[in-house]
Amino acid sequence: MRAVWRVADVRAAEEALMATLPPGTLMQRAAAGLARRCALLLAEAGGVYGAGVLLLVGAGNNGGDALYAGARLAGRGAAVAAVLLAPERVDADALATLRAAGGRLVDELPADVDLVLDGIVGIGAAGGLREPAATVVARLGGLRGRSGRRPVVVAVDVPSGVEVDTGDVPRPAEPTNGNAVLPTAVTADVTVTLGSLKPALVVGPAAALAGHVDVADIGLGPWLRGTPALHVPEWDDIAAWWPPLDASSEKYTRGVVGISTGSATYPGAAVLSVGGALAGPTGLVRYAGGAAAQVLQRHPSVIATDRVAHAGRVQAWVCGSGLGGDEFAAAELRSVLAAPVPAILDADALTMLVDGSMAGQLRDRDAPIVITPHDREFARLAGEPPGGDRVGAALKLAAWTKATVLLKGDRTVVATPDGRAFANPTGTPALATGGTGDVLAGLLGSLLAAGLSPERAAVAAAYLHGLAGRVASRRGPVTASDVADALSEVVPA
Question: Domains in the chain, please, with CATH?
C-alpha cells in the first residue's frame, strides 16, 4: 500500500526535516529530482542539449523548484526560458542561479518548446488558476517542439490549480462577451510529486490531470506522522490477499457465494454478476432468481434455484442488479439481509433502501455489508451527490450506514465505517458501459465468501476489475461480457 498524505501533514514533515538540514537543501533535492525526470523525458524527444524548455514560475517554493531545475537543464545545454507569473515574489536566489546557468526571462511564449515545467502554484494554493497564469496555460496547446509535437508538460508536486486535499478541480467561469473559457488547472503529462503522494494525484477529477505520477524522494518519509488521508493498493497487496489453494482444497472450503440478481426482465444482470463471481476464488456459485435458465445456459457449473430461501448455505450474498423493485424483489432483499453472512448490496437493492422501510433490518444486522453505489445511487442514499470531496463523502456515508462503501468512478473510492479510505489506481473510462458494475459485484461477492475482510474484498475487486477493463480495451470496444472474460487473465494465479 502506498500512503497518501494531506497538505498539513506534508507541511509539518517538511518543517521538521528542514530544521535538520542546511538552508536550501530541501529545494535543491526537489530540483534535482525534477531535473532528472525532465532530462529523461527530453532524451526521448531528441536529447537535453538544444531542447527548448519553458518554465512557468509562480511565487513560493514551487517556483523556486522550477527555477533551480531549469538551471540544471540549462547547464546541460537546454535552451531554458522562464515566464515569471508573480515577479515581485519570485525566489531571488533561484532566479539568479537560472540566469547564471544561461537561462533567460521572457514575456512571450517561445516558438520552440519541447517541455513545459509547471511551477505556478503548489500545495498551499486553493481556488484554481488566476490571471495571468490561466491565459498562459491556455496557450500551451499551441506550442510545438523540435519534432513538431506539442511539448510535454511536467507539473511540480501537483498540477497547478487543483484542490490538493480533495482532488476537486474548480469549474471554469462561464464565458462572457465571446471570450474563450480559460482553464482552472494545468493538465500535465507527468507530475513529479515531492516526498509523498497527495490526494489530488489519486482521486477525483484532479487525478486525471496529473498524468503519470513519479514520487521524488527528498527524505520526507521518516517525518510523515499521523494518519494518512488514504491508501493506494498495489499488485503485491492484491496477490498477498488472494486465498491460496493447497492439496486439501475443495469447493466448499474455498467458499460458496450466493447471487441474487437479475430477473425475467433483466437476465443479463444475473449472467454478468455470476460471471464475475466465477472469476473469483470461491469454489461454488449458487444463483437464486428469475434468470436461472439463462445463467445455466452460460454457466452450467452454477447451482440455480428460484429464490434466496431455497438456495442453501453460502458464505456471502450479492444482491441487487437487475432484481427490479417489486414485492418479490423486496422479499429477496429482506431474505438476504436476514442471512447471517456478509452481503453486497448493489443497484436495485440500493434503490429499495432509500425509503427507509428496511432500516430496522440494516440496523440489527451483525454481518458486514458492502454497498456499491455510483454517483446517482450515492445521491439517493445520502441525500446529496458526492461533490468535490469524494473521499470525505464516501467516509461520511460509510459511518452513517455502518457499511463499507465502494463509490464507483474512474478512481473508485473504498471507505470503511471506522474511517479508512482507499483509492483504486487501475480504473479506465472503458468500464463506463452497461453491466460492468454487475461483474464487479459478483467478483466482490466471491472474495467476501472466500474469507477476505469487507475492505480488502472491495479494494481487490475494484483493482482487478480495472485491470480487466484495461485488458478488454486493448482488443476493441468494451462490453461487460468482455470484462468478465478478461478477469481470468488478471486474477492472481
Answer: 2-170+182-230 (3.40.50.10260), 235-490 (3.40.1190.20)
